Amino acid sequence: MQDKHVVIFHGREDRDIFINKCELPKTIYHIDGIGGKAEPGDIIVDNHQVTDWIMAKHIVDNYDNLPEYTIFTQADPNDHCVELSNSIKCKFTDKYGSFCFARSLCEQFTFGWQRLHSAALSAERLGIGFHNSMNDRKIMYYFAPGNIFYVHRDRIRERPKSFYQSIIDLDNDEDFFNYVENYNLPYWVYREIDKCYPNLKKLSKKEKIVQLTKLVPQYITQNSSKKRDDYFGISTEPLFTFLIFMDKKIIKIIDEAQSVMGNKLYFNTNNSHYNYDFYFNKFPYHDNKHQTTFNFKQFEENWFDRDCPYFKKWQEFNKEKLRFEARKSGRNEDELVRFFENLGFANITC
């Protein structure tokens, strides 16, 4: 029997969605000020201390007394995970694994969002950035949204307690605003900003960054109802479910792959000019985003015991989710499930 403990981030969510269904030992962090009520035993934090801060704080407070596996999750995991109360009973077979049915590909800066979040710069501040990561705009981070995953205590302890303490210490939005706004960003960042936000073209470089960090969203659209979010926390989300806990061998493969993206290779010495059309894309990255996702999924095959009865039951729920997605998109349900099965994926997820 594996020793597991569940850490839950709770705000306005109904506790009957997951908290009251969870049969494993659990710690509940209630995020105050966003709705919902705390109950006796909850650890109350304010609404500036959300998921990234909570995960780091829990690890720091329990670093020397961690269970075999810690499971981190939202109090309502349903928008990212199928049947979590069942899936956490599966037998874990790796030092890290995600329960989410969705995967996201994230670039250094979120140019398509209303706010310019930077996973690359938050990673740099934590000392875990990629090599040659700012040479071009590119998808670098692969993660499961929602921070719903398990991690073994040995994987957590591969980094010292001081590393997680630094996440707590650096989780200050005003400091991170200033860090991003005063960073010596490469020219392509401003080129991409001009493409995504043509109404900012006349501003200086510094003013563009300020508008897309501190003053967003009012400047971008007068009709936006988006509230100011946790700036540093959103930027670190892909780090927790990817860079911090993923196997170092996998991170090395990914780092080597992304480091050459955007670099032009010139093999034909007979040419008198550079060949600007040739790009080198190395596994797991591909020009096609869907192929990149499939490449990454090959890293997930050792997360759960395929013969575990809980896993088999969970996969039936995942297949039903897959069929639902197929119906929404007008695809053949059975063909889509067979497609995933024929690829050999143990964990049938969208």
Percent range for β-strand residues: 5-15%
Radius of gyration: 21 Å
- Helix share of residues? 25-40%
Shape category: globular
> Domains counted in the coordinates: how many?
1
Q: What is the β-strand count?
A: 8
Secondary-structure content class: alpha/beta
The chain-level mean pLDDT equals: 86
Give the distance, in angstroms, between the N- and C-terminal Cα atoms: 29 Å
Major sheet: size, sense and barrel closure?
A: 6 strands, mixed
Count of runs of 4 or more consecutive helical residues: 13
Oligomer status = single chain
Strand order of the largest sheet: 3-2-1-4-8-5
Low-pLDDT segments, ≥5 res: 221-227, 273-278
Name the helix and strand elements from N-terminus to C-terminus, one letter apiece: EEEHEHEEHEEHHHHHHHHHH
Summed up:
By secondary structure, this protein is α/β, with parallel strands linked by helices.
What can you tell me about this protein's structure?
By secondary structure, this protein is an alpha/beta fold. Helices cover 37% and strands 11% of the residues. It contains 13 helices and eight strands. The chain has helices spanning 51-62, 84-87, 119-125, 153-156, 161-170, 173-181, 187-196, 205-213, 231-243, 248-259, 289-297, 309-329, 333-342, and strands at residues 4-10, 26-31, 43-45, 69-74, 96-98, 104-107, 139-143, 149-152. Helix 1 (51-62) packs antiparallel against helix 5 and helix 12 packs across helix 13. The longest helix is centred in the last third of the chain and has 21 residues, at 309-329. It is globular. The chain starts with a strand and ends in an 8-residue tail after the last helix. Mean pLDDT is 86; it is low at 221-227 and 273-278.
